[in-house]
Amino acid sequence: MTDTIFLKDRTAIVGIGETAFGKAMAQSEEQLACMAIKAALDDAGISPSEVDGLCSLNMENVFQHDIARDLGMKEVTYYAQMPAGGHGGCGTVGHAAMAIATGQANVVVGWRSRKRSGRASRVWAQLEQRIQGSRDTWLRPWGIIRPVDEVGVMYTRYMHEFGATRDHLANVALAFRSHANRNSNAFMYAKPMSREDYFAARWVSEPLCLFDCCLETDGAIAFVVTSSERARDCRTRPVYIHAAAQGFDGGSAILANYFTADPMRSQAATCAKSLWRQSDFRASDIKVAQFYDAFTPEVFFTLEGYGFCGRGEGAAFTEDGGIALGGRLPVNTGGGSLSEVYLHGFNMISEGVKQMRGSSTGQVDNADCCFVSSSDLGPTSAVVLRN
Amino acid sequence: MTAIPLPYGDDPDTKGFWDATRDKRLVVQRCKACSHCQFPPHPFCAQCAHDETEWVEAAGRGQVWSFGIAHGPTLPGFQNLVPYPMIVVELEERPHIRMVGSLVAAPDASINSVPASAIRIGLPVDITFTAVSDDITLPRWMPRASESLKP
Ligand SMILES: [Zn+2]
């Protein structure tokens, strides 16, 4: 088809905004969202009145029309919500890029605002007495209640098939904590962690302990996307959206992927195929990456799904500091969901932008692109950013 | 005791499954066109997209494909049972079919009645049924009698 529009480098992230991250913050989710969006627009040097596109996740409590009213946006011509919560973070970047590349909008904002006390914060705790929907029906009556239960059972099987251990999980938790210890905005900035600390932590859902689980934090993050042409006039150095993809396989399921023919095949495989088809960079070219890490085992599935290593090799990849700064692929250089903040992966997007601007607290020298992905246990999304 | 979350027994896609468990039978869906068997049940055959399926009985023998041990805090209905095992069972006669279940030491025993140390991947299990409401009877699994529960 001659009319196909390819996304490659047509659009750029020109602004990012982050609130402080903490627990029991005083502001409302709506206020936090506005703070992050305003900061991102100020970063770019763009007025809210110029924003005509809004993208968020389906777990977002602050609606696009509230944002537009609160910040005085005028005419909004594109808005979209990604399904599947944390699996769709990078999808909001992709939607923003598509909206601009196809002329639906000129300036698109994506955001995530969350308070743990918020209405939609912890879905599992709001289960009704009678379950609706196929997914919950075949898990909850037998006590698989929380996301951590679903992922724990997946990881027991992974250990069995590939010889992985809890030491590999500790590699992930320790690497990301060491990155957070350099990032003064990270929730765990002042709290170093040792391997002994990791193994002393209480169980949440065996084989996963407290430090295998992401933080429970409040805060908001936003980004601003516009055309590459317009980006050159913005206040910041443009970070180009080089490739953006979504994907899932028929039969795969969110988190509890027990029923499909090959549950240990990373669900990111389909998204990866689309992403690398669009990208001039290969997995082997990537020098820094941001992975969704609500739970430590997800890092292994992501490494395998996008071809950073082979099937079943994700755990071993983390040995000898493999995903820490100075390792062969530094991952989550700001601390990730485990140690910076849990905002359904939006801190992976902002950290990717910082890496491309050269302003990360865990800066990787000579990184010409950054891989960013959302939760790979389900319908997922990913982007390649470049400078 | 706080109740546990249960499905509706009259959902058109799954009613046949819950009708059977009330009779202490385990069933899976079979496609009337290509004979593909599937679980969880859904409206069409995932193999050939045919829209007519029937329920066929499964033997109720399987082995543990994977497991985990839930600790709190969790839903009130489960909080007083932690730590308890959660298992995924693959059926002996149809290994491509897996089901989430609970492991119990005896029929109607509590879901925390089997110690974690007695559970392993590959543990042979047999089905049992526990009525938990008027309309819902849950399939559960017991370590096969020939398997000792030694840690
Ligand atoms: Zn069929």
* Most extensive interface between two protein chains, with residue counts: A-B, 40 and 41 residues
Largest sheet of chain B: 5 strands, antiparallel
Task: Describe the strand arrangement of the main beta sheet of chain B, using strand numbers.
Answer: 7-6-5-8-9
What compounds sit in this structure?
Answer: zinc ion
Distance between the termini of chain A: 29 Å
- Main sheet characteristics of chain A: 9 strands, mixed
* Low confidence ranges of chain A: none
General shape of chain B: globular
Calculate the mean pLDDT score of chain B and round it.
Answer: 94
* Head-to-tail CA distance between termini of chain B: 30 Å
Organism (chain A): Aminobacter carboxidus
Domain Thiolase N-terminal (chain A): 12-187
Domain Thiolase C-terminal (chain A): 261-375
Protein name (chain A): Lipid-transfer protein
Question: Which characteristics define this entry?
Answer:
heterodimer, A: 387 residues, alpha/beta, nine-stranded mixed β-sheet, two-stranded antiparallel ribbon, 13 helices, globular, B: 151 residues, mainly beta, three-stranded antiparallel β-sheet, 9 strands, binds zinc ion, Thiolase_N (chain A), Thiolase (chain A)
Describe it.
The complex is a heterodimer of chains A (387) and B (151). Chain A has 387 residues and is of the alpha/beta class. Chain A has helices spanning 29-44, 64-71, 89-101, 134-137, 147-162, 166-180, 195-200, 228-231, 269-278, 297-305, 314-317, 336-339, 346-357; strands at 11-18, 53-57, 78-82, 107-114, 130-131, 203-206, 208-209, 219-227, 239-247, 289-290, 369-373, 380-386. Chain A has 13 helices and twelve strands. In chain A, strand 11 (369-373) and strand 12 (380-386) form a beta hairpin. In chain A, helix 1 packs across helix 2 (64-71). The longest helix of chain A is centred in the N-terminal third of the chain and has 16 residues, at 29-44. The mean pLDDT of chain A is 95. With 151 residues, chain B is mostly beta strands. Helix content of chain B is 8%, strand content 35%. Chain B has helices at 15-22, 76-79; strands at residues 6-7, 26-31, 37-38, 53-58, 61-70, 84-91, 98-101, 124-131, 137-143. The longest helix of chain B is centred in the first third of the chain and has 8 residues, at 15-22. The radius of gyration of chain B is 16 Å and the shape is globular. In chain B, 36% of the residues are buried. The mean pLDDT of chain B is 94. Bound molecules: zinc ion. Zinc ion is lined by residues 31, 33-34, 36, 45, 47-48, 50 of chain B. The site of zinc ion has 8 residues of chain B, from loops.
